């Protein structure tokens, strides 16, 4: 399972943060791998609309491109995220993305 | 209105910055007045107006003239880990930060550096550097407190019924030039036109 994660918008333009990050679940620790897969399962991305309503000014917009080995789905989600399952997934992806950026 | 959380790592709590709070409140005003769409040049104008009034609030509270102001937006929002002073600079767009993680401040100061992109609704936080710089140039050339003349001209333009939600930089600039003449006089008109010309927007003298 691979996830391409992007953060767009927000209060300011930060080129370093705007670049997409690929999170390869199989390269994570077994614990992180399992946790992330569970969050993806709960967020149920395949049932969500691909693109939500337009974001407010200065709101961040998250793009989650999921490739689960069988199917692909890209979902764009603006802040604020009301759904707790989606919120939890975005938070986890943001943490993993930050780790990937630091390691670059 | 969206603030977002400081993450404690790179960013402090966003609400510690008065100009950022005023920036967000101004989006509400713009939404009621000119209703500039949050896309492309109109979106960059929307962003710039929020920075203009954000900065004016800070300057007013500090009792600063245009010459004394630092013209920084979001100073103090970065933690010590970040190599940068603010989110944006109206005085020197493109110099606010240059950091290993955040990247370099992408803002242009003039139309020569205008960024064509699909990110960030067409670069609204990036190309806002151009009208921001025009305001800084106008305010410092007009002298005194920035809210007295430049701020007044920009506010009247924001409320100008002729300004469309899809306004481009040149349309906004022309309106500020007309409002400068209408509110003050020929000197102010020429000063505002010159400020826009310096950033590459030729709105007539």
Characterization of the model:
The complex is a heterodimer of chains A (104) and B (205). With 104 residues, chain A is an alpha+beta fold. Chain A has one domain (2-103). Chain A has 3 helices and 4 strands, in the order βαβαββα. In chain A, α2 (30-43) packs antiparallel against α3. Chain A is globular and about 40 Å long. Chain B has a single domain (14-198), classed as Neutral Protease Domain 2 (Neutral Protease, domain 2), CATH 1.10.390.10. Chain B has helices spanning 18-32, 40-62, 120-127, 129-142, 147-158, 169-183, 186-198, and strands spanning 72-73, 88-89, 98-99, 103-104. In chain B, β3 and β4 form a beta hairpin. In chain B, α2 packs parallel to α3 and α4 crosses α5 (147-158). The longest helix of chain B has 23 residues, at 40-62. In chain B, 51% of the residues are buried. Classes of the chains: A alpha+beta (104), B mainly alpha (205). At the A-B interface, α1 and α3 of A face α1, α2, β4 and α3 of B.
Features:
heterodimer; A: 104 residues; alpha+beta; 4-stranded antiparallel beta sheet; 3 helices; 26% strand; globular; B: mainly alpha; Neutral Protease, domain 2
What series of H and E elements makes up the topology of chain A? Answer: EHEHEEH
Q: Please estimate the helix content of chain A.
A: 25-40%
CATH C-level class of chain B is Mainly Alpha
- H and E order of chain B: HHEEEEHHHHH
Question: How are the strands of the biggest sheet of chain A laid out side by side?
Answer: 2-1-3-4
Q: What share of the residues of chain B lie within helices?
A: 40-55%
Counting DSSP E segments of at least 2 residues, the number of strands of chain B comes to: 4
The main sheet of chain A comes to: 4 strands, antiparallel
**Residue fraction in strands of chain A:** 25-35%
Number of strands of chain A: 4
Biggest interface reads: A-B, 22 and 31 residues
Q: How would you sum up the global shape of chain B?
A: globular
Oligomer: heterodimer
The figure for the number of domains of chain B is 1
Structural class of chain B: mainly alpha
Report the structural category of chain A: alpha+beta
Uncertain segments of chain A: none
């Amino acid at each position: 399972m691979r996830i391409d994660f992007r953060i767009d918008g927000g209060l300011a333009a930060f080129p370093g943060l705007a670049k997409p990050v690929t999170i390869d679940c199989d390269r994570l620790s077994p614990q992180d791998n399992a946790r992330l897969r569970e969050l993806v399962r709960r967020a149920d991305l395949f049932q969500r609309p691909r693109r939500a309503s337009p974001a407010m000014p200065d709101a961040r917009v998250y793009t989650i491109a999921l490739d689960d080995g069988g199917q692909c789905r890209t979902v764009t989600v603006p802040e604020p995220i009301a759904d707790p399952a989606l919120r939890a997934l975005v938070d986890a992806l943001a943490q993993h993305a930050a780790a990937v950026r630091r390691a670059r | 209105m969206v603030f977002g959380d400081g993450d404690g790592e790179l960013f402090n709590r966003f609400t510690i910055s008065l100009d950022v709070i005023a920036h967000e409140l101004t989006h509400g005003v713009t939404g009621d007045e000119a209703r500039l769409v949050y896309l492309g040049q109109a979106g960059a104008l929307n962003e710039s107006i929020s920075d203009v009034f954000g900065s004016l609030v800070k300057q007013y509270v500090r009792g600063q003239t245009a010459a004394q102001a630092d013209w920084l937006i979001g100073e103090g929002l970065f933690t010590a880990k970040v190599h940068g002073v603010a989110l944006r600079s109206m005085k020197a767009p493109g110099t606010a930060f240059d950091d290993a993680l955040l990247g370099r401040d992408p803002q242009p100061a003039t139309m020569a550096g205008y960024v064509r992109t699909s990110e960030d609704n067409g670069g609204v936080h990036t190309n806002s550097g151009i009208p921001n710089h025009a305001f800084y140039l106008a305010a410092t050339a007009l002298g005194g407190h920035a809210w007295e003349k430049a701020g007044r001209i920009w506010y009247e333009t924001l409320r100008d019924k002729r300004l469309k939600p899809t306004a481009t930089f040149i349309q906004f600039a022309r309106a500020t030039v007309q409002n400068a003449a209408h509110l003050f006089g020929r000197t102010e008109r020429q000063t505002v036109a010159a400020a826009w010309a310096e950033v590459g927007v030729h709105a007539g003298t």
